[in-house]
Amino acid sequence: MKHWERLKLQQFTTGSALSPFDAALVARGLKTLPLRVDKICSNALAVAQFLAKHPKVHRVSYPGLESHPTHEAAKKYMKNWSGMIGFDVGTAANAIKVAETVRLIVHAVSLGGTESLMEHPLSMSHGSELLREETEPMVPPGLLRLRQRWSGKRRGSYRRSGEGAVTYLTVVKAVQCSGCSSHRSKALKTTCLVVVSNKAGTEQNDI
Hints:
alpha+beta; Aspartate Aminotransferase, domain 1; 5-stranded mixed sheet; 3-stranded antiparallel sheet; globular; carbon-sulfur lyase activity; Cystathionine beta-lyase domain protein; pyridoxal phosphate
């Protein structure tokens, strides 16, 4: 039983073994991996720059930002900046609200796929380890983790900056909404996230 529990934990941590077909798909996908990684990183940089200027975001952790403490080391040792962004919105309640309200970003825990994914580590993937009564949380309660996708085109609900990097649904200006197409059928006021372009300053709330 002891060994079975260890095996279950190992499978949960690393995931299931690939089938032959999945392994063949991975081998095929490796041929275009550099192109996809470049796109992921350029998109993530645009999102991180947007978040860094947002008044409701307390801190952004992304090595591509000059304000990041390891930016110079990242320039020296990394070929690109990564597609993973951490940002702090102050409290756990704020973080959960953002994660549960997003519509184009999937509220889930994963590093694979082509979707942009957002999670609140304290209440999701690492909650049992990070939130203990006898100790302080190891990560800020308001921290959100965003994995940026490589392609931004989805039913026209996105914005692009002058460099062509996608900045759709990055976070977040919450407004009281009573009439956008997403909530019109509910006939009640609810919170709707508004995408703010980091270039033109325009808004799009029908997402």
